């Protein structure tokens, strides 16, 4: 059994070899082993050792991995690279830090699930806690100050955090990938272009971080930063057009739009366009295997210039967590929105799980859910659309209950005895999922009639189908006096 990196055997199993059944390379000689010699050739060369006791592997782990990693870096341009398994590289060199994404640097913080849904009646702080939880995941530590959590949340929103709200018309195309119409500026033709949804975009960013973390020497800066730096002279007006040199001639970029680059050829006045999204995809791959012929000769020199600017200056890439928050997760058609993600979001099916699975999107692109992307949902149990929560989705999420509280450290809940009595009666008549949340009795307004008449009573009327008699009886259990002959119902001051 042979483990090969580049063109060198780096780890071998020799069951019948008299020198030892294990063979491994190392940066330095392994002490205490009879058969430990350097390879032939120009020095320094790695050592190769034979032994049978497994403790040599553990005692010399860093020595062995240093030698193997050097071979990996040495063979980046080897012809063997076409057989390279990138997922296996990440697993081999960063196994512990990537396959345990919930391992927090704060020892007081419990490991967190990759897929979580906060559920409970309205007003119990579900959205509040999604922001707090997202900040904790981003920082990988426990956060008790909500103001600090909001700062972290806002600083990372649109990059490492995405926040969306599901609704009845939300679709797979909005969430993962679809086609969007686009009218070409050059010839006014209607074209349909691939458009990535919010989940696909953040998943791509998260997976890029894992790959950069595993191979920092190949890490690239974000396309948006590199592209903006590239076009800055044209945008700032320092020049009216940007010359792009080809092998024998040049072409000239004249304008940058939101989706396309306008350019003119060296001869003639006609204008042509290049897609920024297509250029982005080429940049991520590091090669143009998308456009062949025609415009290929105009994409390639721009791509080359961007890749030259792409290198991360200090080759130090930190492994980061990413979060997507889905508010009102039960209001969309889950099966339609999630599609194949129903399976791929499971921890063991993700990029660095035990059995990672890829799918092929309708565009033909391969897709895998990264192991550093957390999904947080919020679900209102009183919502009539709760039945739409797919059974398959239920099995893949950890559910955290959020029900009314009557004591919160550092916070004041007004009229909590009234709230307790109301909820006690509601539980008897309709169940726990239709209680009144404590947030209705918090904030700047302490006026009980205002809280009841503008917030709580309308909610009760909705719960009980405008049954005036039943709602009145519930209010009376909390010692509230209802005004006579008024609709909608109100309590007396």
Please give a handful of descriptors for the protein shown:
493 residues, alpha+beta, five-stranded antiparallel β-sheet, five-stranded parallel β-sheet, 16 helices, 34% helix
Task: Explain the overall architecture.
By secondary structure, the protein is of the alpha+beta class. 34% of the residues lie in helices and 19% in strands. It is built from 16 helices and 18 strands. The strands form 5 sheets. A 5-stranded antiparallel sheet has the order 1-2-3-5-4. The chain has a 5-stranded parallel sheet with strand order 7-14-17-6-18. Helix 4 crosses helix 5. It is extended, with a radius of gyration of 30 Å. The termini are far apart. The model is unreliable at 94-104 (pLDDT under 50).
């Amino acid at each position: 059994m042979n483990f090969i990196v580049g063109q060198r055997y780096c780890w071998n199993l020799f069951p019948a070899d008299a020198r030892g059944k294990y063979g491994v390379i190392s940066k330095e000689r392994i002490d205490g082993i009879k058969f430990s010699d350097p390879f032939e050739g120009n020095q320094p060369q790695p050592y190769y050792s034979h032994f049978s006791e497994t403790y040599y592997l553990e005692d010399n782990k860093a020595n062995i991995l240093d030698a193997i990693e050097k071979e990996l870096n040495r063979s980046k341009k080897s012809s063997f690279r076409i057989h390279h398994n990138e997922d296996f590289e990440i697993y081999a060199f960063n196994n512990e830090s990537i396959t345990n994404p919930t391992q927090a640097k704060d020892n007081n913080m419990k490991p967190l699930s990759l897929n979580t849904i906060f559920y409970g009646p309205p007003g119990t702080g579900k959205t509040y806690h999604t922001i707090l939880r997202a900040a904790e995941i981003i920082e990988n530590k426990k956060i008790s100050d909500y103001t600090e959590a909001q700062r972290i949340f806002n600083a990372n929103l649109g990059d490492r955090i995405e926040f969306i709200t599901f609704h009845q018309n939300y679709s797979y195309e909005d969430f993962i990938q679809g086609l969007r119409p686009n009218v070409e500026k050059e010839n006014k033709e209607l074209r349909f272009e691939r458009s990535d949804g919010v989940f696909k975009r953040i998943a791509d960013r998260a997976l890029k971080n894992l790959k950069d973390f595993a191979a920092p020497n190949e890490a690239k800066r974000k396309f948006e930063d590199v592209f903006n730096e590239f076009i800055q002279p044209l945008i700032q007006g320092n020049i009216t057009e940007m010359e792009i040199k080809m092998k024998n001639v040049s072409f000239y970029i004249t304008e940058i739009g939101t989706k396309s680059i306008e350019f003119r050829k060296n001869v003639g006045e006609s204008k042509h366009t290049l897609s920024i999204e297509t250029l982005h995809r080429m940049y991520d791959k590091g090669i143009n295997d998308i456009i062949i012929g025609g415009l290929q000769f105009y994409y390639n020199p721009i791509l080359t210039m961007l890749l030259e600017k792409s290198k991360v200056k200090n080759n130090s890439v930190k492994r980061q967590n990413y979060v997507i928050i889905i508010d009102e997760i039960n209001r969309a058609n889950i099966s339609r929105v999630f599609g194949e993600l129903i399976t791929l979001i499971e921890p063991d099916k993700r990029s660095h799980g035990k059995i990672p699975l890829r799918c092929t999107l309708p565009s033909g692109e391969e897709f895998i859910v990264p192991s550093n992307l957390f999904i947080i949902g919020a679900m209102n149990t009183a919502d009539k659309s709760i039945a739409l929560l797919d059974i398959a989705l239920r099995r893949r999420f950890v559910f955290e209950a959020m029900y009314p509280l009557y004591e919160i450290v550092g916070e004041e809940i007004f009229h909590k005895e009234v709230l307790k009595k109301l909820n006690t009666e509601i539980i008897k008549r309709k169940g726990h999922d239709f209680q009144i949340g404590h947030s209705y009795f918090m904030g700047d307004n302490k006026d009980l009639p205002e809280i009841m008449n503008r917030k709580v009573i309308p909610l009760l009327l909705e719960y009980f189908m405008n049954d005036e008699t039943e709602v009145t009886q519930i209010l009376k259990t909390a010692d509230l006096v209802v005004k006579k002959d008024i609709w909608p119902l109100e309590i007396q001051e």
